[in-house]
Specification:
The structure is a homodimer.
Chain A: E1 2-7, H1 10-22, E2 28-33, E3 39-41, E4 44-46, H2 48-58, H3 75-83, H4 94-108, H5 113-124, E5 129-132, E6 139-146, E7 149-154, H6 155-161, E8 177-181, H7 192-198, E9 201-204, H8 213-217, H9 222-228, E10 233-236, E11 239-240, E12 243-244, H10 249-255, H11 262-269, H12 272-280, E13 293-297, H13 303-309, E14 313-317
Helix pairs in contact in A: 1-2, 2-5, 4-5, 7-9, 11-13
Chain lengths: ~325, ~325
């Protein structure tokens, strides 16, 4: 069976690790990874989501933290502080730096991000085929208002520096809008559309529906490919009982005007069936729906009816 | 007193540390550092000699090793081995990497190596003004013959990989020629010629006379500036009793056809007095001599007469 999964960082990576254990020896997983939270730091290209997937599936992740490397050292971070070179809010460990050094050197030499990712995976052997959503630069920015006024900051600055990731109760600023800069002109990476078209099943893990899956879907051609794929598309709710499984999905959902409920997220992804009928009625110009099925936690059993009313098959199941 | 010193790596740095302790509060030291052993690794600009001077004078050097950082960690080196990304023979510690990251990012942003060095020294406070010999790229290559035939390799590859540095008895290959690639078109860095012209005394520490001091002198204008300086130029022999104080000066001296003796090195630097008389006799085209005085160890007392016969004042003194 050919399985395609879209994935962000921690949530997606952990889902994939479970998926990899559940499949048979003949099954193949292709992961289309979000690159919208990529950032350039110290002149190096950092791809947090691709690396989290690669490290998690390759056995190098810091388990408790969920990102970065196990057995990490922090000498460079300490040195950067001595040099007064920022940003202090973004922590890159020494082992992690090695990945960014290798990646950056290959990119400078002219390799694409797809080629670099494949090369890095020669070492990590993640057991999946890991593709970046695009070889083009896409950066998710977040509009905020703080003491410096209203402005757009890099997603990582919002997520890490403004403490959105640290404690959902103490986010210093609200995300007012999510802007995937560069997404409108990005092209899907080689193999992405082909994998979607050839899949037997397509999965949307419980990754952030806005800044992870949403950014992947913002690359022109990917949403349409999901809508048109012969395989069923099944998603897993990242919201359980009104709270994100992990992270800050609720905060960025608010920025795009979607309620942080299992049902609202599914309906925002939209039903592939509804699109097909809408298209039949001449409803061109609407955003294509991408879901056939949706899995929610039993805590959200009440969402099932609303999701099914939107043309998406929905089942409630207990997390194990 | 305005003191100018040319310097390579370990030998020069240790000499400068002693010099700094010996001078008065009104005295100023300007160091013109060799950049011929600079190398690009992992896409970063590495300046081994400038860093050795900076770390040694700034209190960050690994004392026993003589190069690199104290309290170093080696995570990146271990990772690079896992990625199969070379060169394995060149060891950069994590703290050291931070310096190269900051330097490379500033160079990419358009700063010159002089400006970057000044910025790094804001942290290290070496107590001297540290100038690279040139902001232009100069790379010392060494011609060797091994199982792969006759070829030129980067000085660092000769010095580190081919074990010239490890054990003088077991150098795998001979240096057949020393080629300062790029030196012919390099310009002295801002302030270099001015410092030489304004100096009260100019010192040549016991650094390698070929690949350290020799490379600095190969930058057009620097040798002539030394020859023409109003201040006396005094050198310290890097050879004591026929052996280099440290490193492999004897091996590279052989490559340029100079005996590894305290006298031969002085005579190869040449007498400023001899030049002046040679010029008076229309001896243009000769390489200018750069020495007024030469200090040798008492073990080389026999060299004094030969050096003085060459027009260079010479004294034998015991190392303390």
């Amino acid at each position: 069976m050919r399985i395609v999964a879209l994935a962000g960082g921690i949530g997606g990576a952990r889902f994939l690790r479970g998926l990899r254990e559940a499949i048979g020896p003949e099954d193949e997983i292709t992961v289309i990874g979000n690159t919208g939270d990529d950032i350039h730091l110290y002149g190096l290209k950092v791809c947090p989501d691709l690396d989290t997937v690669m490290y998690t599936l390759g056995g190098g992740i810091h388990e408790e933290q969920g990102w970065g490397r196990a057995d990490e050292t922090w000498s460079i971070k300490a040195e950067m502080k001595e040099y007064g070179v920022g940003p202090e809010w973004f922590g890159l460990g020494d082992r992690d730096f090695a990945t960014h050094l290798v990646r950056s050197q290959m990119l400078t030499a002219g390799y694409t991000l797809s080629q670099v990712t494949e090369a890095l995976c020669v070492r990590w052997k993640p057991g999946v085929r890991l593709l970046p959503m695009s070889d083009d630069r896409v950066e998710t920015h977040v509009r905020i208002t703080d003491e410096n006024g209203t402005r757009a900051v890099h997603f990582q600055e919002y997520w890490v520096r403004l403490h959105a990731a640290v404690d959902a109760e103490h986010a210093a600023v609200d995300a007012e809008a999510i802007i995937p800069v560069g997404a409108d002109t990005a092209k899907p990476a080689p193999g992405v559309l082909e994998a979607i078209a050839a899949a037997d099943v397509i999965l949307l893990p419980p990754s952030n529906p806005v800044v992870s899956i949403g950014t992947i879907l913002a690359v022109p051609g990917i949403r349409a490919a999901l809508a048109a794929a012969p395989a069923p598309v099944v998603g897993l709710s990242p919201i359980i009982g009104g709270a994100p499984v992990r992270g800050m999905a609720d905060k960025v959902l608010a920025a795009v005007g979607v309620e942080a409920t299992a049902a609202a997220v599914a309906l925002d992804y939209g039903s592939r069936a509804a699109l097909r009928s809408a298209s039949g009625e001449g409803g061109g110009g609407r955003r294509e729906g991408v879901l056939d099925g949706w899995l929610v936690d039993t805590a959200d059993e009440a969402a099932v009816a609303a999701v099914e009313a939107g043309g998406i098959a929905c089942r409630a199941t207990r997390r194990t």
